[in-house]
C-alpha cells in the first residue's frame, strides 16, 4: 500500500519514472491490486509510452470490470493509438456503466468523428451537452462536425454558444471563421479570424486561413503578410508555403510562386494541391511537360479532383497528346460536371459537351463565387446630358483577340449618347493595342491590386448604368466583382463563348445563328440578338504590305495549302483524321498550322505518319506581329475550322484578308462562331453541318480551282457590302441594344430577351 500511495503522489508531481518504479513494486507485492496497475498506467502515459499503458489498464479492468473511468482511460489510449473501433467499444462500456458522464459521450463523439461517422458523432456530442450544457469542448467539436456535414448555420450557432461561455476561446473564434467562410459571409469570417489572432497571436492555422480568405477576396498584399507570419512561426508549414505561392501567382510573380510551391512539396511531398498549383505556375512559363508531370503527381494522390483532371486534359489538348483521348475527355467532362471551378469551367467549352451540360457546369461555378451580395443599385439617374454610362470590364486590354476585336468599337461609341469607361487589370504589355484602348475610353480605370469587393465599390462609385464583362470564366477573370452587383444592368459579352450560369448577369449578346432562340433554356442570361453578327471587327487593323513568299513561309512552291491557325487545344483527333484524308486525296497539298508550343509539331507529325501521311506535309508557323501574321494568311488557300470549338477572332482575321473559311457548325455557342461570321459575310455555303459534308466540300474546293476562285471573288465583293466588317453599323446596333436594356430597367421591368431590328436599328421585343 505504501508503494502504491507513493506512486500516486509521484504521478501527481509529474515524476513519472519514479512513480512507475514505485507502482511496479506495489504490483510485485500485490499482483491483484487494481490501484497499483492504474498508477502504472498513469506513469506510462505521463512518459508518453502509450502502447505500454494498455496492459496495466486491461489488467485493472480484469480486476474491476465495472469501473467506468478505467474503460474510458483505456478507450483514450486506444484512440491515440489509432485503434478507433476498440476505443469506441471501451467508451460504450463506460457509458453503459455511467450513462450520465458527459466526458464519456464527448470522447465517443471524438472517436466517431475521426472515423467520419459524423451523424453518430453529432449524437454523442449532443448527449454530452444534454448532461453538461456548458461543455465548451463539446460545443466546439459539435460545431466542427456540423461544418463538415455542410450544416453551416448550425455550426455557427454551436461556436457562438461556445464563445458565450468563453469569449476569448481562440479555437472557437477560428472555427467560427471557417463556418462563416463556408456561408460566404466573408466580412464576418475575416473578423473571427482576426479575433482568434488577437487572443492567440501565435495561432498559425488562423494566419493561414485568414491568408486564404484575403487571397480569395483579392487582398493579395494582406494575404501574403498573413502567410509570411504563419511561416515565421512555423517555417515548415506546407499549407502556408502553398498559400503564399498562390498569392505570388495571382500577382504574376511566377518564379516566386514556383519557389513557394516547391518548398511546400519539400516539406510535404504528398501535398496534391501544391502539385496542382505548381503545374499552373509552370504553364505560365510554357513548361508544359513539367506541368503535366506535376498534374500526374496530383492525380496519383487525388485521382478524382475535378480541377486537376480538367487542367491535365486541357494541357494534353494543348500539346496534342491524344493518348486515350476519348477516355480522358470523358473523365474530364465527368469531373467538370461534378465539381467545376472558375479556373477550369472554360475547359468544358472545348469538350464534346452539350449546351445543357455547359449550363450545369456554369451554374455550379457561379454558386461557388464567394461574396457578400450588395443590393442592386437603384434606377439610374443620368446626367443632364442623358448619356448612358457604359463600363467594360477586362484583364485583356492588351494584345489579345478580344481587345483587337473591340478597339474600333470603343473608338466609335457615340459620345453624345454614351459615356464609356474601361476597367482594367492584368499585365501591362506596352503594346500598341493597349495604348490605343487606353486612349479610346472616356475614363480608364486601373483596378489591378484592388481586392474584388473594393474594385466593385470603385465601379459602383462611377454610377454606371450598364457593366459589360468581357471575361466570363476565362484566364484572370474576376466574377466576384460582378457578383457584388456594382451596376444595375450586367452583360456577358464576347470573351466567354457560353453562359455564365449566374443570377448576377442579366444579358448575353448573341445573334440568331450563334444561339438560336430555342436555346434560351440553356442560358441564365436573357438573349439579346444583334441583327447580323455577335462579333465586332476592327476595320483599322493593319496588314503588312510585304506579303512573304511561300518559301519564306516554309511552304512548297506548288500545291494546295490547307490552313488552320486555331489554337492547338481546339484540334481534335476526329478533325485531324479528316485533314489527313484531305492530304491523301489532294496530291501535293500541305496542312499549315500554328506552332502554339514546342510539342505540337513533333506530336502532330507523329500522328500524321501514323495515318499514312508524310510528316513534312505538315508545316508549322511561329508567332508573328499582327500585320505580318495577316499578310502571311494570304498564302493559304482554304482555312479549315475545328469543332467543338470554332475559330472566332482567327476566322475573322482570315476573312478580313480574303481567305475562305470552311466550318462545321455544332450545337453550342463555341461551335457556331465561324458560322455566324460566314453568315454575316454572305458565305453560308461554307457552313457544313456534318463531318461528311465538311470533308466532301473541302475536297471539292481543293480540286475544283474555279469554284474556290469564285468563292474568293464573292468574299472580296462582300467584304465592303455585307455587315461583318461594317463596324459603324455594328456599333449602332450594339448601342441600340444597350439603350433597350436601359429602357427595360428604367421602366421597372425584369430583364427580357429582345432582338435589334436591322432595318430601323430599333430593338423589338
Question: Can you tag this structure with a few keywords?
Answer:
765 residues; Serine Threonine Protein Phosphatase 5, Tetratricopeptide repeat; 9-stranded mixed beta sheet; disordered C terminus; single chain; 6-stranded parallel beta sheet; Rossmann fold; 15 strands; alpha/beta; elongated
Could you characterize what this model shows?
The protein is of the alpha/beta class and 765 residues long. Among the domains are: 2-196, Serine Threonine Protein Phosphatase 5, Tetratricopeptide repeat; 388-530, Rossmann fold (3-Layer(aba) Sandwich), CATH 3.40.50; 561-725, Rossmann fold (3-Layer(aba) Sandwich), CATH 3.40.50.2000. The protein is built from 34 helices and 15 strands. The strands form 2 sheets. It has a 9-stranded mixed β-sheet, covered by helices on one side. The protein is elongated and about 115 Å long. The relative contact order is 0.05.
